[in-house]
Amino acid sequence: MKHKHLKTFGSAMVVAWLFCTLLFIRFWPHLVNSNFKKAIVDQGFGDGPVPLNTLFTEPQALFADPLHTVLPPGSSKLMQVGVNHDTLLIVGWLDLTRGPQVLHVPDFSGRYYSVQFTDPYDVDFAYVGTRATGTQAGDYLITGPGWRGSMPSGMKEIFSPNNSVLLIGRILVYSGSDLPTAYSLTKQIQLAPSTNSQSTQ
Q1: Please, which residues have CB within 8 angstroms of residue 70's CB and are 6 or more apart in sequence?
Q2: What range(s) does the DUF1254 domain occupy (predicted)?
Q3: Tens-place pLDDT, residues 96-135
Q4: Is 39 helix (H, G, I), strand (E, B) or coil?
Q5: What single DSSP character describes residue 84?
Q6: What is the CATH number of the domain that holds 145?
Q7: Phi, psi (deg, nearest 5) at residue 114
Q8: Cα(169)–Cα(105) distance, rounded to whole angstroms?
Q9: Rounded to the nearest 5 degrees, what angle is found at the Cα of 137, between the Cα atoms of 157 and 61?
């Protein structure tokens, strides 16, 4: 056939393109989240690295003037990218291999807030906040895939399909004069290891 080799070459190119596309779709989110983890755990945001299972709250000065706040050399500039004009940020990277973590949120009295849980493949699998759970105070037990403990009373479970979790929180700031109040509420979002449940991972 006159153009048989061209058809073979074209078919091979289509297969190669599809394969590369599938690889990109599969691994790109994981690569992005790996960079997030490095920015949080290894570099931090001016106060040094942020340890696993610890929350970092965006400083008031960085929120007030994100484009002119100078971070120390070696710090991640993640907090300055995609500048939020009306929400304070909190970030943390969870490692659930040693057992669940407890997330405490204060009473936000109707103020908008959101805490997002994302797995290493950039899938948001749970939310705590105004739209998902309301603005009242609450405690949430974040469990990994191998956990076989009992739920403490008064808590709600957030099941993570992976032991590695990116946590991102956003808290609404109404105005410049409201910033100290919003910051105080943000600092009351706390993370701690569970003390009264057992893990058999």
Answers
A1: none
A2: 79-193
A3: 998 999 999 999 999 999 999 998 877 889 999 999 999 9
A4: helix
A5: -
A6: 2.60.40.1610
A7: -150, 135
A8: 11
A9: 110
Residue 60 in any domain: the answer is yes
**Residue 82 structural domain:** 42-193
Residue 90 in domain: yes
Structure tokens of 51?
């340890």
What is the pTM assigned to this prediction?
0.74
What gap in Å lies between CA 72 and CA 44, rounded to an integer?
Answer: 10
Contact in structure between 95 and 59 (CB atoms under 8 Å): no
pLDDT of residue 163: 94
Q: Number of structural domains, the chain? A: 1
Tell how strand 164-172 and strand 87-95 pair up: antiparallel
Beta pairing partners, 102: 141, 192
CA distance 134 to 154: 16
In a domain, 147, yes or no: yes
Q: What is the pLDDT of residues 18-74, one digit of tens each?
A: 655 555 455 545 555 566 666 666 666 667 787 889 998 887 776 666 555 656 566
In the chain, the amino acid numbered 47 is: D
